[in-house]
């Protein structure tokens, strides 16, 4: 066990949410936002944007979620900025969730796992988002490595976009695909559940999915899973909709918001105030 305090990710996230509220602030430096901050859309602008977010969020929110795509756009120099963001947040004691939605098979999945979850990875985040649509068990190399290194995962179950239902609501032998993902996470989180803790295999369930959690029979409480809920804010998720969607699992939910928070930039103090205002509105 090696990440941070030595406790597994699920326990560290629970502690951070209790201390700082249930907000995960996103770092999504897309062109329109970068330019609205008066920055040029190039590597220098990317770096200024991202480090301003680090200054504003470090030590203030439970977790920060950089979106890998917006760094990858700039090639190796963009990735270097992402690595700096992850390293500085870790040094400041703030949990990071890298949104890269990785998923593959066999030795390729093993390589992804090593790249993001190993102790000797270049800049490992505390947790990584994964896509299970090559089959939940195809993620096993990442699940096993994250368990060994104390890191976490957020596996896509019900995504915030309307198109996700085409795959995630589909049924096989009467069970919705999303429910089979929850079942997989529940199995991996069973030891943590027995200790009365959240596990380190989290799920992504959008803040915009309405009553789908209940309709599809997803038991998030029994799965002892942290839930990352993107779609809060600009995509339409609200404090009220989180209550409707998650019910008894509400205390497991970390609401993720990018544009709603980032629209308060570029002044770091205003950005921080916006994040704190949203975090305070979210019951833990
Ligand atoms: O189901 C999902 C999974 C991931 N995302 C990501 O979250 C942010 C949302 O940004 P907002 O500006 O708060 O809408 C973005 O990085 C998405 O790729 C998601 O929206 N839904």
Task: Report on this structure.
α3 (43-57) runs parallel beside α5, α3 packs across α13 (268-281) and α6 (106-117) packs parallel to α7. This protein has helices at residues 9-20, 31-36, 43-57, 69-72, 75-91, 106-117, 140-149, 165-168, 177-194, 212-215, 239-246, 259-262, 268-281; strands spanning 23-27, 63-66, 95-102, 127-130, 152-158, 171-172, 175-176, 201-205, 227-230, 253-257. The chain is of the alpha/beta class. The model has no long low-confidence stretch (mean pLDDT 97). An 8-stranded parallel barrel has the order 1-2-3-4-5-8-9-10, surrounded by 7 helices. Helix content is 45%, strand content 16%. The protein starts with 8 loop residues before the first helix and ends with a helix. The chain binds the ligand O=c1ccn([C@@H]2O[C@H](COP(=O)(O)O)[C@@H](O)[C@H]2O)c(=O)[nH]1. The ligand O=c1ccn([C@@H]2O[C@H](COP(=O)(O)O)[C@@H](O)[C@H]2O)c(=O)[nH]1 is lined by residues 26, 28, 67, 99, 159-160, 204, 206, 230-231, 233-235, 256-260. The ligand O=c1ccn([C@@H]2O[C@H](COP(=O)(O)O)[C@@H](O)[C@H]2O)c(=O)[nH]1 binds next to β10 and α12. Pathway: Pyrimidine metabolism; UMP biosynthesis via de novo pathway; UMP from orotate: step 2/2.
What's this, in brief?
Helix content is 45%, strand content 16%.
Poorly predicted residue ranges: none
The string of secondary-structure elements, in order, is HEHHEHHEHEHEHEEHEHEHEHH
Portion in strands: 15-25%
Adjacency order of strands in the biggest sheet: 1-2-3-4-5-8-9-10
Overall 3D shape: globular
**CATH fold topology:** TIM Barrel
- Tell me the structural class: alpha/beta
- The CATH architecture can be named as Alpha-Beta Barrel
**Bound small molecules, deduplicated:** the ligand O=c1ccn([C@@H]2O[C@H](COP(=O)(O)O)[C@@H](O)[C@H]2O)c(=O)[nH]1
């Amino acid at each position: 066990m090696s990440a941070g305090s030595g406790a597994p990710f699920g326990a560290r996230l629970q502690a951070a949410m209790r201390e700082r509220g249930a907000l995960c602030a996103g770092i999504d430096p897309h062109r329109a936002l970068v330019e609205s901050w008066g920055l040029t859309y190039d590597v220098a602008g990317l770096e200024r944007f991202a480090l301003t977010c680090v200054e504003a969020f470090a030590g203030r929110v439970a977790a920060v979620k950089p979106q890998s795509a917006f760094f990858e756009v700039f090639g190796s120099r963009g990735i270097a900025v992402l690595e700096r963001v992850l390293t500085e947040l870790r040094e400041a004691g703030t949990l990071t969730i890298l949104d890269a939605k990785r998923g593959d098979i066999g030795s390729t999945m093993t390589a992804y796992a090593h790249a993001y979850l190993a102790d000797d990875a270049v800049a490992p985040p505390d947790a990584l988002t994964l896509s299970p649509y090559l089959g939940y068990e195809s993620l096993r190399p990442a699940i096993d490595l994250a368990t060994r290194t104390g890191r976490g995962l957020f596996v896509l179950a019900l995504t915030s976009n309307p198109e996700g239902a085409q795959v995630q609501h589909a049924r096989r032998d009467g069970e919705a695909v999303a429910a089979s993902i929850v079942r997989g996470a529940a199995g991996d989180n069973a030891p943590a559940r027995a200790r009365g803790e959240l596990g380190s295999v989290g799920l992504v369930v959008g803040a915009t999915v309405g009553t789908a959690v209940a309709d599809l029979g997803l038991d998030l409480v029994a799965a002892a899973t942290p839930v990352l809920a993107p779609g809060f804010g600009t995509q339409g998720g609200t404090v009220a909709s989180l209550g409707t969607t998650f019910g008894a699992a509400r205390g497991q939910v970390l609401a993720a918001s990018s544009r709603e928070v980032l629209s308060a930039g570029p002044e770091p103090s205003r950005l921080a105030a916006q994040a704190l205002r949203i975090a305070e509105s979210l019951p833990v």
